[in-house]
Structures are given as structure tokens and as C-alpha cells.
Amino acid sequence: MLSKKNREVIRSTVPVLETHGEAITTQFYQKLFASNPQLLNVFNTVNQTQGRQQTALANAVYAAAVHIDNLEEILPAVSKIAHKHRALGVLPEHYPIVGENLLAAMKEVLGDAATDEVLEAWGEAYGVIADAFIGVEHQMYQEASSQSGGWTGFREFVVDQKIVESDVITSFYLKPADNGALADFQPGQYVTVKVSAPGQTNTQLRHYSLSDVPNGSYYRISVKREAGREDQPSGIVSTSLHDHLSVGDTLLLSAPAGDFVFDCETSGPVVFLSGGVGMTPLVSMLKTALEKQPKRDVTYIHAAINGSVHAMKDDFNQLADTHDQLKYYIVYERPSEEDRKRAHFSKEGFIDLSWLKSVADKDSTFYFCGPQPFMKAIYQGLKEWGVSADQIRYEFFGPQGSLE
User: Fold this and answer.
1) Domain shared by 282 and 187, yes or no
2) Pick from 23, 57, 158, 284: CA 20 to 30 A from residue 130's CA?
3) Residue 62 in contact with residue 17, Cβ under 8 Å?
4) Strand, coil or helix: what is 192?
5) What CATH number does residue 353 fall under?
6) Are 159 and 248 in contact (CB under 8 A)?
7) Using alpha carbons only, what angle is made at residue 272 by residues 76 and 376, rounded to the nearest 5 degrees?
8) Is 33 annotated as belonging to a binding site?
């Protein structure tokens, strides 16, 4: 437990962190990688370049300061981050390195405002938070390795099939190279791949949702090729997988992780909303709902630019044609004439609240995933509709962002 004095000091730094949080975390990562370049093999360098990781860490530090009197309030965020840490292979010995560099960054950015008293208080607070992470992650490592077919670290898988799903998305069917048992997973979870990409000095780690139901035979990941833009380079890993990974090749995976999972315990109506490749965790949830809850009302809405980038079209059509409980709608931003003739094409443009009200039940549980602007629009629409927070569930691809 933190001392009363140090809790008061931490609370006093809340306004400073609100103003200078991202400057601190930016400086932190620069220091961390300069003194520990081996950690570049763990962190996503694209998220660093885009500033997403710095923002996520700044928000986490700020939340810790705000809730310093009741750190239990941030436990859900701790669990979400811990899943990713376990999947990446973050270990207890990494935490002192992080703490040392975070305090050094605070001192450098805040200057005279980072008094010995402030640094001492944050040092103690960091120790408490680190212990929470280490404890949660230890349990997760044990669960991942002790289950049937489980493992620790990274395990070698063979590409059994490589299926082009659309102009931008390709699915990889992966089987254990050792022919051993395959660990189960919860619909919505992801695996982490470790790739030595051409032209890259450091190992690259990326999370990819498992896009099929647990089956004991294979894992499937469906990967979007991330094309470069002026403000963003081409996806290092996605490009490598699309261009260089073939049937018979091997890929290193950590055991399934993630807390964005389908709840089979509830029985009310459920609505899935996906934008682009955001369908990947939701298709696993959808198939599970149809298989395990055949009387449950299910609505699936998919949004894409047009049919050329819409993956798994035939699979979804088949599910809709063979399950009376499923209502399936397609929304294309810029549909072609051929797209307009597709079965289940329902709307041109975007998913807006008035249309959503016409096809979905407000009392549903809503699961959604996709690009952040898509998720923000869905989230704000649901809040405007008056959907309660416990009915709204979503997943970010990458560091946690804000939908407010």
C-alpha cells in the first residue's frame, strides 16, 4: 500500500500529467530504447512512429494518478494490458527497467517540478502498479502453459493453407509443427506472431485475431495488407506475411490471449458490427453464437468501402442462408453496380443511428471492432441511443484509444 503522504503527492501531479503526459512518455520510450535496444524486439515500432503507444501509456499513467486512492478502479485496464504483455513475452525483470526510465523521463520533462518528493512518490506508486501487473501476468502464463495443448513462449506452426479472401485480406491456416495438441481459445481472442521481416534489424511482433471457431485442428488468422500512406509506412509484418509466407512455411506464435471475448452465458439478442478487417474477432464470435445458442437472435452488420475489399463474403452468405436466427446486413461506402446486386446489401454510405435503430434491438449486447473512426461513430451512436455501458463491448487493434 502507498503511504498517505505519497498518495497526496501523486494526486497533486494530476494536472501536470494531463498537460505533459505524452511528452513524458515520448521521452520515456526514447530513453528506454537507447539504453535497452533489445526491447525493440518486443515493442511495435509502427505504433511508436504513429504516437499511439505514447498516448496509450500517458493515459494509463494519468488514470493511475487519478485513481491512486483506489487502484482497483484500473484493474480492468491492467488485465487488458496484461493479456498483451503475456502474449509478447514481457517478464518481471522488464519492470525495473521500465520504472527507471519512466522516472528519468519525468525528471527531464518536468524539470524543477519533478522534486525528490514527487519522484519518490511516483517510484513507490510504480512499484505497486508493477507488482499488480506481475501478479496478473504470472497467473496468465501459468494458465497458458498448463491447459491441454498449451505452451509458453513461441511455438512453431506450419502454414497448411493460404486463402485470398479479398483484394486486401488473406487467411492463413496454421497447424502445430510438432503435431501436438492445439490449445483451446475463447472466441474473440488473438495470437501473437513473431516475424523476422526482410530489411528489418529487429524481430517484429504483431497480434492477429483468431478468425475461426476453436476446432482442435488449426488456428486461422486473416491478415489485412496495410498499404502505405503519406503519414504511415506500409505494414512491415502484414506485407511480409502476404508476400513471403507460403504453404509449408513456418510461423512462430504465442498462445491465445485477450479479454474481448464472446459471452455465451447471456441469452438476449446480440448485434455484431464490423468495419473492414474488424470482422476477424467477430466472425469467431458469430459462428460460436450460431452453434451454441441456436435460439438466440443474432444480427451481423458489416461495413466496407466496397465488395472488392469485403472478405469472407461467401462464408457469411452461407451462414445467413442456413441459420434462420441470423439477420445479416452489408453496408458499402462506395458500392459498385455489382455490389448493389449482392445478397444482403442493405445500405450505401455509413452505418448511422437512425438506420441502426431500424435493424437492431436496443436491448441487445453490442460487439464491434474496426478502424478507430468507425468504432467511435458506433460507440457515440449507441450512447446517444441510450444503450447502457454493460451492453457495449469493443476491441482496439493496437494500443488502447479513446472513443469519447
Assistant:
1) no
2) 23
3) yes
4) strand
5) 3.40.50.80
6) yes
7) 60
8) no
List pLDDT tens digits, range 335-392: 999 999 999 999 999 999 999 999 999 999 999 999 999 999 999 999 999 999 999 9
Please tell me whether residues 116 and 208 are part of one structural domain.
no
- SS3 of 172-219: EEEEECCCCCCCCCCCCCEEEEEECCCCCCCCEEEEEEECCCCCCCCE
CA-to-CA separations, 39 to 42, 124, 154, in angstroms, rounded: 5, 24, 16
- The pLDDT of 107-113, averaged and rounded, is 92
- In three-state secondary structure terms, 280 is helix
User: Would residue 264 count as lying in a domain?
Assistant: no
Domains: count for the chain: 3
Per-residue b or e along 166-184, where b marks 16 or more CB atoms closer than 10 Å to that residue's CB = bebbbbbbbebeeeeebbe
332 assigned to a ligand binding site:
no
Gap between the Cα atoms of 387 and 385, Å rounded: 6
Q: Domain containing 202: what range?
A: 155-257
Residue 85 assigned to a binding site: yes
- For the ranges 41-45, 141-145, 196-200, 237-241, the lowest mean pLDDT is seen at 41-45
Cβ(202)–Cβ(45) under 8 Å? yes
Domain end position, chosen among 107, 122, 146: 146
Judge whether 207 is annotated as a binding position: no
In angstroms, rounded to a whole number, what is the distance separating the alpha carbons of residues 162 and 169?
Answer: 11
CATH number, residue 114: 1.10.490.10
Q: Residues 93, 23: one domain?
A: yes
> Which H or E run contains 150?
none
Mean of the per-residue pLDDT values for the chain? 91
Shared-domain flag, residues 298 and 323: yes
117/168 same-domain check: no
Which residues are known to be catalytic? 95, 137
Check: pTM over 0.70? Answer yes or no.
yes
371 assigned ligand-binding residue:
no
Asked if 224 and 247 sit in the same domain, the reply is yes
Strand partners, 164: 170
284 and 258 Cβ atoms separated by less than 8 Å? no
Q: Residue 190 annotated as binding? A: yes
Residue type, 60: A
